[in-house]
Design a protein that fits this description.
The complex is a heterotrimer of chains A (about 325), B (about 180) and C (about 150).
Chain A lengths: L2 H23 L9 H14 L2 E11 L2 E12 L2 E6 L2 E6 L2 E6 L2 E5 L15 E10 L2 E9 L5 E8 L5 E7 L5 E11 L18 E2 L12 E2 L3 E8 L5 E6 L4 E8 L1 E2 L9 E5 L2 E8 L2 E8 L2 E7 L3 H9 L7 H11 L6
Antiparallel strand pairs in A: 1-2, 1-11, 2-3, 3-4, 4-5, 5-6, 7-8, 8-9, 9-10, 10-11, 12-14, 13-14, 14-15, 15-16, 16-21, 18-19, 19-20, 20-21
Chain B lengths: L7 H20 L2 H18 L8 H22 L30 H7 L2 H11 L5 H8 L3 H15 L24
Chain C lengths: L2 H5 L3 H6 L5 H13 L1 H18 L8 H8 L7 H30 L9 E2 L3 H15 L2 H5 L10
Helix pairs in contact in C: 3-4
The chains are: A alpha+beta (about 325), B mainly alpha (about 180), C mainly alpha (about 150).
């Protein structure tokens, strides 16, 4: 064989070797794929699945960790969560919730699509885990400082969101929603259709001059919908890709004595507020000019409070900067 | 460490493995063990102010046990039985334990996790956390004789030598109606 | 110790764990010499106990400690959090007080007092859950609706 032939063979051998190396190293570090894609699909998976399960919610209120359970099932495109007088039924764009005898119905809701899961948070795939006896991909969400703030567990087989943990800025578990038990093998009890009774909110494009509706609340929340409830309350719905936030506004002043017990005194943008930790998320009630504002969000509580406070438009402005500089690193006490 | 009282970080660093091991043997799975360990560490942080220097690992084992038992009590109040109005949904039965095997189970951890917790907790505290009967009696607020009988039954249950008997007599609980028995 | 206790089988576990006093230990050893059944149970117990003690220590996932301790920097997290919270609220209070002071200096015009309202906190939490379930996983969003309580 002449020199050219030998060279040709060498090149071929090298190419084969290279291709082999690329093929081997090209295998993804974790076989789960793209975390944002997993979460995107998990948004819809329960609507199409056939499942029955027990769902457990844990939420921290001060030093206490509360735990409660409820049931969930899905079949024929309808999802039912809860039982008896505390139940919600959903199918496609409609939702119906009964709470102690009062029923609220959301008709078909048009809104902008939510931001991608990775829009405001850094997502990464962690080692798989098991939830309710099922193998799950684990997705970690980190904030700008690289701290882990949320964990999502997605079923490897059917893409369901099996568990969601939210962690506060100290690393302590703040809230967790998870299946304690799950059957997703095609067996599920019959589900009722979405009832057509109950008054509910309607979509609105213009909230009116009395209310505020910023299109964005930092950090990362985008306005997806505006709704007017039968009693005149305006609800704004925001999402940041992983978490959501609702702002409810009504004219008036807060009747602080009439609020439910257990609220913690907080300061929201310099105003007095009352904060609660509930299974649905952090709830903050405060006054903005002559509006009563209630914020509800499943985001980590510090993020939720920051976004709710951003409703006012300014972050405190130059006066706050001066005060911050004066107090600086010394702190009080 | 000042006055023999460790800082919280020292506890987590030097005894974290011990704490997590006890949590894992009690809980039987990693997710629950992590939750358990995290809750326990929060209580450790709060309790360090009141901690009197003594057996640190004994104190840690006690805290992990309390968190575990609190969780068990919570779960008992919310049985995972079928949803109401859903006669079709049947929870699959636990694997039948018909054949008693006196062999040491291959997966000891799984057998341990399957033990009812009234036996599992004392066994773990004795053989994993290395606690004395008296320390265990203190942690669980039960008599030493009960600790002994539960450890014994727990060990025998692990072999399948006994079936859990809810009416099994503790030596410290005298049978009713027998007075002055020899 | 009564004779009944000494004869109870669980004395074997106590014997194995070194929890018996001298007299009780002697009683058990005497019984072991004459009872093959007790010898068998003791062997079985010893094997079980040894296997349990041989179970390896379990390492927590490294993420657990870094999550709790926040990485390699050793910080008293509770104190840091208190400090952050206090600073935040203090400067906001000062800012509010300063703003209020300006208003007082300028003068307060008579304005009609708006009504006092009681926000329906629990209903709002449900409304948020319902709307959230349209853009997110329905089950985890609606779970709170299925939980009775005063403030959902």
């Amino acid at each position: 064989m002449n020199a050219a032939g030998r060279l040709g063979r060498a090149v071929l051998a090298l190419a084969v070797l290279l291709a082999l190396v690329i093929a081997l190293s090209g295998a993804p570090a974790s076989a789960g794929g793209d975390p944002a894609e997993l979460l995107r699909r998990a948004r819809e998976a329960a609507n199409e699945a056939v499942l029955a399960g027990i769902v457990e919610v844990r939420w921290r209120d001060g030093d206490d960790l509360h735990v409660e359970r409820t049931g969930a099932r899905s079949r024929q495109g309808t999802v039912v969560v809860g039982r008896g007088e505390h139940v919600a039924v959903g199918a496609q764009g409609a939702r119906w919730a009964a709470d102690d005898g009062v029923a609220t119905r959301w008709g078909h809701v048009e809104s902008a699509p939510p931001p991608g899961p990775g829009s405001s948070w850094d997502l990464e795939l962690d080692d798989p885990a098991r939830v309710a006896g099922r193998d799950a991909h684990v997705i970690i969400a980190r904030d700008d400082e690289g701290r882990e703030r949320a964990r999502f567990f997605v079923d490897m087989e059917n893409g369901l969101l099996l568990r969601r943990d939210v962690v506060d800025d100290d690393g302590t578990l703040e809230r967790s929603v998870r299946y304690a038990r799950l059957t997703a093998d095609g067996v599920s009890p019959a589900v009722p259709p979405v009832p057509d009774r109950g008054k509910g909110p309607v979509v609105t494009d213009d909230v009116g001059a009395r209310f505020v509706a910023p299109t964005r609340l930092e950090p990362g929340f985008e306005l997806l919908g505006r709704y007017r409830h039968p009693d005149g309350t305006v609800q704004l719905f925001y999402a940041d890709g992983l978490f959501s936030l609702s702002i409810f506004q009504q004219p008036g002043l807060v009747d602080w004595d009439a609020l439910p017990p257990g609220g913690r005194r907080v300061f929201v943008d310099g105003e007095r507020g009352s904060a609660y930790s509930t299974p649905a998320g952090t709830v903050v009630v405060w006054e903005l000019d002559d509006l009563v504002v209630t914020g509800v969000s499943d985001a980590p509580s510090d993020v939720a409070q920051e976004a709710i406070a951003a409703l006012d438009g300014d972050d405190g402005g130059p006066l706050a900067d001066v005060v911050d500089y004066v107090l600086g690193p010394f702190g009080w006490e | 460490m000042a006055d023999g009282i460790p800082t919280w970080e020292e506890v987590a660093r030097d005894h974290g493995r011990f704490l997590y091991t006890v949590a894992y043997r009690l809980a039987g799975n990693e997710q629950d063990a992590q939750d358990l360990a995290q809750e326990a560490l929060i209580r450790v942080r709060k309790g360090l102010e009141r901690y009197e220097p003594g057996s640190l690992e004994g104190w840690l084992a006690r805290i992990v046990t309390n968190v575990f038992l609190d969780e068990m009590r919570r779960r008992k109040r919310r049985p995972t039985s079928a949803l109401p109005d859903d006669p079709d949904w049947v929870v699959p039965p636990a694997p039948a334990a018909d054949e008693a095997s006196h062999e040491l189970p291959e997966d000891l951890q799984a057998a341990l996790a399957a033990l009812p917790e009234e036996f599992r907790v004392p066994v773990v505290l004795c053989d994993v956390a290395d606690q004395s009967y008296e320390q265990i009696a203190d942690s669980l607020d039960i008599p030493v004789g009960t600790v002994r009988s539960r450890i014994h039954r727990g060990r025998r249950l692990l072999r399948g030598a006994l079936t859990p008997d809810p009416d099994g007599a503790d030596p410290d609980t005298p049978p009713t109606g027998l007075e002055g028995a020899a | 110790m009564t004779e009944r206790e000494a004869m109870h089988e669980d004395a074997l576990s106590a014997y194995l764990d070194g929890e018996l006093d001298d007299a009780a230990r002697a009683d058990v050893e005497a019984r072991l010499e004459t009872s093959p059944e007790w010898r068998a149970i003791l062997e079985e117990l010893r094997e079980t106990r040894d296997a349990l003690r041989a179970l390896p220590a379990v390492d927590p996932p490294p993420e657990l400690w870094s999550r709790i301790l926040g990485g390699d920097d050793v910080v008293d997290l509770a104190a840091a959090r208190r400090e952050r919270r206090d600073r935040r609220s203090i400067w906001k209070m000062v800012a509010a007080a300063a703003a209020a002071a300006i208003v007082i200096v300028v003068g307060v015009a008579a304005v009609p007092q708006p009504d006092k309202v009681e926000p329906a906190v629990a209903t709002y939490a449900d409304a948020h859950a319902a709307r959230s379930s349209l853009s997110n996983d329905a089950v985890s969003s609606l779970a709170s609706v299925g939980i009775p309580g005063s403030t959902r």
